[in-house]
Amino acid sequence: MKSVFNISARDKERKIAKVSRLIPKYYDAGSFTNEESIVAQISKLLKPNQWLRVEDSRYGKYDYLQPINYNKQPIGMKPIGIWASKGEWVFKIGHELTLLEVDYSRILVLTTKKDYLEFENKYCKKVLQKSIQKVFKKSIEKNSKKTLSIHKSSRNTKTRKQICILNIQWNEVVKDYDGIAMVPFGKKYFIQEMLDFANHIWVAGYDVSSLIIWRHDGKSPITRAISLGTTDALYKSTASTTERDDKIDYTLDIKKVVQVLKQGILELPNTSTLLN
Q1: 217 vs 128, which has greater pLDDT?
Q2: Is the pLDDT of residue 61 over 80?
Q3: Of 24, 42, 227, 251, which sits 20 to 30 A from 32 (CA to CA)?
Q4: What is the distance between the alpha carbons of residues 84 and 182, in angstroms, rounded to a whole number?
C-alpha cells in the first residue's frame, strides 16, 4: 500500500470520491453545519476536486487571480489559508459562496486512519501521554463515551505513550505542499471509525470536511473558480440582509441551493483560475 505522501493526483481524487459518500451517513447535527438534506444533496453534486467556500460578503470576495501566500504558519491545531468544505459549512445570511476546483498534485489528502497516522508521525510534535491527561480530561470526556473509556484505560498503562495533541508543525507542511484536504470530518465518523480524540486531540478541533490552501508558486492548486452569489438568495424568506429580524424565519430552500450549485458547475470557466 502506497504512502499518503507518494500517491498521484488521480489516486487522491479516487480516495476523496470513495470517502465523500460517507458524508451524509456521518452527518453531525451537533456541528455548525447546513441542514442534513442539503448536505446530502451537495455531496452528491460536487466532484472529487470541487469544494465550496463561504466568505463574508461585507469584506468582499477573495481575488483568486492573486498569488496566495500563507507561508508563515503556526504550530497548532489548524493552519492559516483559504478554507472550503464539501458543503457542510453553514450558509449564513450575508455570505458569499464560491465554487472551487483544485489540482491535487501538491495538496496532501487525508481520508483513512493510515493517512492520519502517517501525517502525525511526520509533522506532529508529540508529547508523553501522561503529561497532558489532567489538562484535557474535561474536553475529552465531552466527546464520547468511547473516547472516555480509552482515556481511563490509558491512565493505568505502564507505557508512557507518545501522542499527538495540538502541535502540528504546519510550518514544515507548507514546505512540502500547497494545501491539505481532509474528508470526511464529522466527529461521529471519527469517534466510531477512525481516531480516538484522547490520543489525537488536534482532530477534535475540526467539525467538517476541510480543504485549506495556503500557497501556490506559479501554478495555482485552484484551477477554476466561480461565484455562486450571496447566500441571501438561498433562503425561503424574501427579507434582505438589512431587514434582519428575530421574527423572520430564515430557512434554506434546498431546491434553490441545488439549482444554484448545478448552474455554477455548468458555468465554471474553461480558462484556468478565472473567477466570474
Answers
A1: 128
A2: no
A3: 227
A4: 11
Which residues are CB-contacts of 245 (< 8 A; sequence separation ≥ 6)? 239
Q: Amino acid identity of 57?
A: S
pLDDT at 218: 67
What is the spatial distance between Cα 267 and Cα 245, in angstroms, rounded to a whole number? 34
Q: Which of 168, 167, 162 is nearest to 131 (CA)?
A: 162
C-alpha to C-alpha distance for 198 and 129, rounded to whole angstroms? 9
The CA angle 20-22-47, to the nearest 5 degrees, is 20
Domains of the chain by residue range: 9-124+165-267
- Which of 55-69, 124-138, 151-165, 225-239: highest mean pLDDT? 225-239
- The pLDDT, as a whole number, for residue 86 is 94
The x, y and z cell numbers of residue 33, run together, are 453545519
